[in-house]
Amino acid sequence: MDPTDIPDDAYGGEESPSDLGELESPDTLLKGGPIRERLLDIVVGLRTPTKVSTIAERADCNTETARDYLEWFDDMGMVHRHNGRPVRYERNDAYFQWRRINQIREEYSEQEIVDALDDTLNQIEDYRAQFDATHPDKVSLVDATQEQNLSTEAAWEALSEWETLEQRAALLDAARRNNPVAGSKPGPVDA
């Protein structure tokens, strides 16, 4: 029997397989929920300045509602407003990085942050030794596949993981260096 075949006894009794046509489409699922949440989902993905009308269309809401929320998001620092005609907005990466650093500081003790940073730095050192480079951007994918005897996909995955580790190290180090979160107890850190 082919592993993808469904055995005859897979459905017991009078049950029948689900009708996939009855499932909601992904578009329908994304357009449900409160407008603020839909707009926030769109804002998180904005990598380039985008018109309000485009954002409203993606969030399935009217332009004026989108404009009101985008102004609020701008006041909070979540987006950058690009004045002009038309006004455009894009995600403020610094805000989201600040949020992530605060999350790390709230969820982990200073010692846990230092331990995670140490582990991350050790993994980075392994990649630096493996590829004989200081950063993944300094490594040619073509050279890596030939020198490391890796498939293109395996080399790309290794370099991508290394880049992720570099970003994680930067976040952990920033969380370690910042003032303690209100209500937490600062302690000595050996890093």
Can you walk me through this structure?
The chain is mainly alpha-helical and 191 residues long. Helix content is 57%, strand content 5%. The chain has helices spanning 26-31, 35-44, 52-59, 63-76, 93-107, 110-131, 141-147, 152-177; strands spanning 50-51, 79-82, 88-91. A 3-stranded antiparallel β-sheet has the order 1-3-2. A hairpin with a 5-residue loop joins β2 and β3. α3 packs across α4 (63-76) and α6 (110-131) runs antiparallel to α8. The longest helix has 26 residues, at 152-177. The model is unreliable at 24-30 and 179-191 (pLDDT under 50).
Number of helices: 8
Order of helices and strands: HHEHHEEHHHH
- What proportion strand? 5-15%
Measured as a percent range, the helix fraction is: 55-70%
Which helices and strands appear, and what pairs or packs with what?
Elements lengths: L25 H6 L3 H10 L5 E2 H8 L3 H14 L2 E4 L5 E4 L1 H15 L2 H22 L9 H7 L4 H26 L14
Helix pairs in contact: 2-3, 2-4, 3-4, 5-8, 6-8, 7-8
Short description:
This protein has helices at residues 26-31, 35-44, 52-59, 63-76, 93-107, 110-131, 141-147, 152-177, and strands spanning 50-51, 79-82, 88-91. With 191 residues, it is mostly helical. Helix 2 crosses helix 4 (63-76) and helix 7 (141-147) crosses helix 8 (152-177).
